[in-house]
Design goal:
alpha/beta, three-stranded mixed beta sheet, five-stranded parallel beta sheet
C-alpha cells in the first residue's frame, strides 16, 4: 500500500478479498493491524477488511443486485403473502447464541404463550451465511410452520452484507410460507428486507407482528360468545312466537273446537224448532 509520501508492505488473504479484483492504481480503504517480524526487523500491515474507494464495494454489490431483482418483480407488493392472524407454529431462523433469539422468544411468550415456536440455527455472519439461512428456511417449510422470522441483531455493514444474497432472495421469493425479515436495526436495510413479505425494524418488532396479543384474542372470543348468545336468543324468541301462533291455530282448528261449534249450532236449531 502506498500514498504520495510513503508505502508499507501489506498482506491480504484471498478469503478477505472475496470477489474484489484489485489492480495497480486502485484507491482503497483498508482496516487491519501491524505485524512486526523481529528476525528481519520488518513491519507488515495485515489487512482483514477493505473496500474500494467511492460508494463502497458492499453498497455497489447491493445496488447491482437490487436493480436485478427489482426488474424480476421480487419486490412487488402484489406477490407478498399476508401474515396469518392466528398462527399455530412460528419458525425462527437465527443464531441460537445470539441476542435476537432471546428478544423474539420473550415477546412471543408474553403476547401469545399458547403458540409453538421452532428455532432453526443458522450462522448470521462469516462464510456461507446464505447457504445456512436458505437451508434453515427449507427445513422449517417442511415442518409446516405458519410464519417464518428471519432475524439477527445489529452489526456493521460487512456483517449485514451477507443478507444481500441472491440465494437468500430466491429462497424467500419462492417460499410458500410468509417470511418476516428483521436484519440489523431500524436504519439498516438488506435485500432480504425488500424481498420478504414483511420487514421489521428489530427482532422484537418481528415477534410482535407475527402473533396476536392473547388478551385481544380472549376479548374477541368473549365478544363472539356474546354475539352468538344474542343471536341464539333472538332466534329462540322468534320460534316461541311462531309456536304460540301455531298453538292458537291448532286450537281453533281442533276436532274438540269443531264439535263444540256444532253443539252450539244444534242448540240454536233446537230453539228455533
Amino acid at each position: 500500500l502506498k500514498d504520495e509520501q510513503s508505502r508499507i508492505r501489506a498482506m491480504v488473504f484471498t478469503k478477505t478479498l472475496g470477489d474484489i479484483k484489485l489492480k495497480d492504481g486502485d484507491v482503497i480503504t483498508a482496516v487491519g493491524k501491524i505485524s512486526f517480524y523481529s528476525r528481519y526487523g520488518t513491519y507488515t500491515f495485515l489487512v482483514n477488511k477493505l473496500e474500494v474507494q467511492g460508494i463502497g464495494y458492499n453498497f455497489e454489490q447491493f445496488a447491482k443486485l437490487y436493480k436485478e431483482l427489482a426488474a424480476l418483480g421480487y419486490f412487488e407488493e402484489s406477490r407478498k403473502k399476508p401474515l396469518p392472524k392466528y398462527p399455530n407454529v412460528i419458525g425462527v431462523v437465527t443464531s441460537t447464541t445470539g441476542a435476537a433469539l432471546q428478544d423474539i422468544r420473550a415477546v412471543i411468550i408474553r403476547r401469545y404463550p399458547k403458540i409453538t415456536m421452532l428455532v432453526c440455527h443458522a450462522k448470521m455472519q462469516g462464510d456461507n451465511v446464505d447457504v445456512e439461512v436458505a437451508d434453515a428456511i427449507h427445513r422449517l417449510e417442511k415442518l409446516g410452520v405458519d410464519t417464518i422470522i428471519l432475524s439477527r441483531g445489529g452489526g456493521d455493514a460487512d456483517d449485514l452484507a451477507a443478507f444481500n444474497s441472491k440465494l437468500i432472495a430466491d429462497t424467500i421469493y419462492n417460499s410458500d410460507v410468509p417470511i418476516i425479515s428483521a436484519i440489523g436495526h431500524e436504519i439498516d436495510f438488506s435485500i432480504s428486507d425488500f424481498v420478504a413479505d414483511k420487514r421489521a425494524a428489530t427482532p422484537s418488532i418481528a415477534a410482535e407482528i407475527s402473533v396476536p396479543e392473547i388478551s385481544e384474542v380472549i376479548k374477541k372470543i368473549d365478544d363472539l360468545k356474546d354475539d352468538i348468545t344474542q343471536s341464539f336468543n333472538q332466534v329462540l324468541q322468534n320460534y316461541k312466537l311462531k309456536l304460540s301462533f301455531l298453538e292458537k291455530e291448532i286450537k281453533l282448528g281442533s276436532p274438540a273446537q269443531k264439535i263444540y261449534e256444532k253443539k252450539m249450532m244444534m242448540k240454536d236449531l233446537q230453539s228455533m224448532l
